[in-house]
């Protein structure tokens, strides 16, 4: 097993290995043709014979084993030694917008976004200006300076963004958190849609952030500072972004997905944004002739752009980037 991991990690940089090993691949389903006419055409403007989607319950199931045992990531050290570092996922933040208003009110303790406002907007234009704009969001905020949203936008509010169904922002210390599956199961008592909604039901503004904390590595025996790094990955939940290419989605790697996924196979929800904490040493940025460092900075910029367009204060993102609020 260790020899196989070592060979694979030589073909992929450590950063590529982390992103690949922590990317959920969700079972896909096909939308019945009779339901296609009911889709929001602002969110799904393309005419297609088949529409793939996934259910949120299947997405959370991808994290079940990781929540219990950790996700193993092969890492090659500067000495050439290869080991497997395990990370446990925690729900860091989630916002879900749907096309129908929720049947129950949103609870304040789950909606503390830092500035007390629900974020509603949909893009009126696509940005081609830079990598972050191109990758992170196809919609733009249509908001007032106070953080509310103007009603003068061209489309009705429920068409542009939808209705806020659920949101949660974790603020506990890492030691006070429960694994992702436990947290989702708890929230599902208030928001059963977390287990029943589908990606085609969600607006493009729906997203989830997962915090990954290291727990142990194999073989054990010594402390390696490089492996104390924590990660924060961002994933869109809507089918609107399902066919969007992410930069370097493992293209050219031994387990590359780009261009190789067949219809009906699982849908990989690659991270569109990334933040790191306690990154020490070159282990995560030494690969691919400096391209990994560039990619880290690009993914960080994408995450920052996404949060700014949503006008959301994400506690973990701020903490990872040294922003402390007294």
Descriptors for this entry?
326 residues, two-stranded antiparallel sheet, six-stranded antiparallel β-sheet, single chain, alpha+beta, disordered N terminus, 19% strand, 11 helices, globular
What does this 3D model show about the protein?
The protein is an alpha+beta fold and about 325 residues long. About 25% of the residues lie in helices and about 20% in strands. The chain has eleven helices and ten strands. The protein has helices at about 1-10, 15-20, 35, 55-60, 65-70, 130-135, 155-160, 180-185, 195, 290-310, 315-320; strands at about 25, 30, 50-55, 70-75, 80-100, 165-170, 205-220, 230-235, 265-270, 275. The strands form three sheets. Strands 4, 5, 6, 7, 8 and 10 form a six-stranded antiparallel sheet that branches. It has a two-stranded antiparallel ribbon with strand order 1-9. Strands 2-3 form a two-stranded antiparallel ribbon. Strand 4 (about 70-75) and strand 5 form a beta hairpin. The longest helix has 20 residues, at about 290-310. It is globular. It starts with a helix and ends in a 6-residue tail after the last helix. Residues about 1-10, about 110-160 and about 245-260 have low confidence and may be disordered.
